[in-house]
């Protein structure tokens, strides 16, 4: 009998006993014990006391190699000297000011120089806010209302996009040309679903039919080139090229959501594809650990904001501290840094996939660059190419068993099956993770 969920659960509860107690105490003041549902790690969150380099240190006295890095934000690790100093220096100048600052202009210029599709940008306080802004721009520019998104695509918590990021398989239906939009939460008006068209990742035949069907109503297609929250799925280059051709032909704006994957290359993940969208949403890494979101795109589209055709304003938009931290972060993310990050990701993927394939074990890693997914599949040799593959091919109980056990043994991936690499990670760190994963997978299948 192999390692089972109950054994790993008991191990987790023992190792993170104090976190469990804190979670129970916090529930008296915070609904659910914490402010992000994604903090939940099995029975409760793991509470952190401090973080340094590639590690977080929990209130339980446990040191964890952090493959979460605040859900891919902290690509430089924690307590990066240049970022910390930039924040300190900026604080000394005053940081909550009702006027624009040079930091906002400098970060905007850096982004426009790095990303080919960026001619102008608009800053927000988060990528969720940036999603709101991008949709409003698209609707204003096209004069159309509907938005198409991928099933399994996550674009913040605004009502318009909060459908079928993590859908219930029993409710979604099997007709890919008429997928039922499933709201992510109670409190989302039912009529919002009328403005959502759901597409299937890497299925161009179905996508083309739907885009042509709704062309006169669609303001935009929004998609992650590699999805995150809804599960790691990397879009094929030919699929994205055809979507770009169709959106141009049909007068639909194409929006890439690079909230996560802007960390993949200096020019964003879109530079790997060589395809320019009309707009790009981003956040996370570009704020250097302080909340920041951005919409970037062509001057033609973005200038409707400058002309006051589209109104978007917030007290902390373009916040000086976030921009200063973002500048300090991007200055360190040169070609060598991206090469280092991506090579670590490739090493993990190649070594573990080769090992599992040789032993005919149904365990696989996938994804690109420094953000990977993993799955315990139902059969050896399976992989994940659409969100529905998680329903049909993934063994949920084994996924949970591994997540609890790997945390208890000193490593912190995103519990739903994701890994993010950071620059402070060493070759020894990566080797230890690979060996520990081999041990746990072997124990599960004994």
Automatic annotation (TrEMBL):
Residues in the signal sequence: none
Transferase listed as a keyword: yes
GO molecular function (one): transaminase activity
Domain of life, source organism: Bacteria
Transferase as UniProt keyword: yes
InterPro entries: Aminotrans_3, PyrdxlP-dep_Trfase, PyrdxlP-dep_Trfase_major, PyrdxlP-dep_Trfase_small
Keywords: Aminotransferase, Pyridoxal phosphate, Transferase
Cofactor(s) listed: pyridoxal 5'-phosphate
Family in the record: Belongs to the class-III pyridoxal-phosphate-dependent aminotransferase family.
Name of the molecule in the record: Aminotransferase class III-fold pyridoxal phosphate-dependent enzyme
Organism, scientific name: Candidatus Blautia faecavium
């Amino acid at each position: 009998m192999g390692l089972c969920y109950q054994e790993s659960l008991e191990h987790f509860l023992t190792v993170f006993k104090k976190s469990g107690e804190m979670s129970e105490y916090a529930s008296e003041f915070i609904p659910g014990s914490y402010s992000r549902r994604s903090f939940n790690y099995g029975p409760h969150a793991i509470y952190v006391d401090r973080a340094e380099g590639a590690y977080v240190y929990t209130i339980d006295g446990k040191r964890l190699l952090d493959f979460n890095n605040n859900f891919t934000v902290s690509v430089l690790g924690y307590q990066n000297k240049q970022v910390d100093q930039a924040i300190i220096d900026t604080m000394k100048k005053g940081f909550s000011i009702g006027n624009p600052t040079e930091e906002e202009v400098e970060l905007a210029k850096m982004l426009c120089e790095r990303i080919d599709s960026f001619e102008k940008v608009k800053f927000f306080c988060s990528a969720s806010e940036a999603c709101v802004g991008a949709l409003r721009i698209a609707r204003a520019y096209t004069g159309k209302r509907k938005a198409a998104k991928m099933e399994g695509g996550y674009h913040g918590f605004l009502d318009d996009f909060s459908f079928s990021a993590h859908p219930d398989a029993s409710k979604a239906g099997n007709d890919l040309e008429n997928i039922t939009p499933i709201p992510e939460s109670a409190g989302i008006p039912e009529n919002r679903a009328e403005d959502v068209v759901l597409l299937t990742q890497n299925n161009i035949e179905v996508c083309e039919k739907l885009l042509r069907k709704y062309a006169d109503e669609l303001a935009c297609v929004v998609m992650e080139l590699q999805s995150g929250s809804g599960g790691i799925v990397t879009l094929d280059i030919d699929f994205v090229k055809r979507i770009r051709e169709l959106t141009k032909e049909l007068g639909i704006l194409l929006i890439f959501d690079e909230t996560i994957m802007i960390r993949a290359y200096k020019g964003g993940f879109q530079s790997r594809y060589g395809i320019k969208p009309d707009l790009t949403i981003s956040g996370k890494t570009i704020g250097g650990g302080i909340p920041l979101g951005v919409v970037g795109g062509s001057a033609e589209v973005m200038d409707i904001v400058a002309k006051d055709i589209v109104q978007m304003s917030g007290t902390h938009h373009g916040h000086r501290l976030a921009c200063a931290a973002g500048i300090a972060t991007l200055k360190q993310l040169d070609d060598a840094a991206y090469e280092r990050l991506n090579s670590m990701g490739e090493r993990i993927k190649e070594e573990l996939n080769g090992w599992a394939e040789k032993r005919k074990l149904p365990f696989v890693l996938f994804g690109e660059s420094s953000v990977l997914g993993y799955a315990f599949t139902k059969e050896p040799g399976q992989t994940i190419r659409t969100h529905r593959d998680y329903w049909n091919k993934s063994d949920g109980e084994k996924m949970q068993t591994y997540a609890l056990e790997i945390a208890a043994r000193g490593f912190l991936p995103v519990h739903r099956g994701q890994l993010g690499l950071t620059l402070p990670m060493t070759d020894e760190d990566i080797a230890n993770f690979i060996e520990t994963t081999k041990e746990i997978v072997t124990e599960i299948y004994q």
